[in-house]
Structure to design on (320 residues):
């Protein structure tokens, strides 16, 4: 699996999807002009990753811990739908018994970011950890 | 002898400062304009010693972002129209005000949406928001009123609106979102 690295900009998040380390990190601000075009390759990457993982499982290879780290500064409501789609990929892996954790990072005083994560933890069947900084 | 143009500018300056207008922008709210405006507002708020804590400043930017996206989305139906964005400081809250021209036949749908949002309890609004993002009823422009729901949830107050009828079957829509200085929700 190729690493997918997207540099952050003033209006779009930095994304690193590292299949070797099983570490997926999202950070910065998300309000891209064309949200669908921005997130579609990311969702597609996760679908390929899941197929790859299932193939490795079939070969009885050990799967190391899979970590999704969300460290958004801001995201708009249009991005929220796509973040939900990414979280649904985490849920799918968890439901197939892969060792998944979702780490939701937020600035200590940012109650909107904490509330967003708390709501997702209720909607998504995967273990969430909350980290304030 | 006073130049009449300068006098007008001074009147506008006085009008705004007396009403605690912290920022005002009139123009076309493209995505790029909104990006610069948000960056500018962030710097302005960082340096602004209002007694507002960082949580309130962060919330103001969160709400402003959705309000600006909202005019960017809704002002496109009327060509070459100028819209307005204002941030005002009141005694115990901030007002984020946006106004834009729309076709008059779009006004009733806007009012209906706001009234529906204002009628709901916070938990119902949250549930509605969650359903929209979970069921994917969102297009690239937001859609399904998710932006307005988000503004109501984040501002923690009822939304206020005003409409003015203009010539040529157009109307001016004004949306006001209030962000409390102290952390207190009425929605």
């Amino acid at each position: 699996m190729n690493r997918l690295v997207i540099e952050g900009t003033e209006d779009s998040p930095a994304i690193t999807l590292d299949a070797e380390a099983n570490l997926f990190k999202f950070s910065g601000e998300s309000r891209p002009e064309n949200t669908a075009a921005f997130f579609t390759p990311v969702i597609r990457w996760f679908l390929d990753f899941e197929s790859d993982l299932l193939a490795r499982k079939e070969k009885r290879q050990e799967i190391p811990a899979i970590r999704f780290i969300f460290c958004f500064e801001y995201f708009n409501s249009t991005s929220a739908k796509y973040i939900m789609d990414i979280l649904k990929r985490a849920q799918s892996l968890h439901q197939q018994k892969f060792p998944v954790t979702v780490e939701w990072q937020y600035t200590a005083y940012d109650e909107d970011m904490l509330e967003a994560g708390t709501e997702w933890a209720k909607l998504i069947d995967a273990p969430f950890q909350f980290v304030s900084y | 002898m006073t130049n009449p143009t300068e006098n007008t500018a001074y009147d506008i300056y006085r009008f705004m400062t007396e009403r605690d207008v912290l920022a005002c922008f009139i123009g076309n709210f493209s995505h790029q304009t909104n990006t610069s405006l948000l960056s500018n507002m962030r710097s302005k708020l960082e340096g602004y010693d209002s007694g507002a804590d960082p949580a309130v400043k962060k919330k103001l930017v969160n709400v402003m972002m959705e309000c600006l996206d909202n005019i960017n989305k809704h002002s496109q139906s009327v060509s070459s129209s100028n819209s307005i964005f204002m941030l005002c400081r009141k005694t115990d809250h901030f007002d984020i005000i946006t106004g834009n021209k729309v076709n008059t036949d779009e006004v009733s749908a806007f009012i209906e949406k706001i009234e529906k949002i204002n009628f709901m309890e916070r938990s119902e609004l949250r549930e509605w928001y969650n359903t929209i993002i979970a069921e994917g009823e969102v297009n690239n422009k937001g859609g399904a009123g998710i932006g307005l729901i988000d503004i109501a949830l984040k501002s923690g107050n009822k939304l206020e609106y005003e409409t003015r009828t203009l010539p040529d079957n157009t109307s001016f829509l004004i949306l006001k979102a209030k962000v409390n200085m102290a952390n207190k929700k009425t929605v």
The beta strands of chain B are 21-27, 83-89, 93-103, 160-166, 170-180. Chain B is about 50% helix and 25% strand.
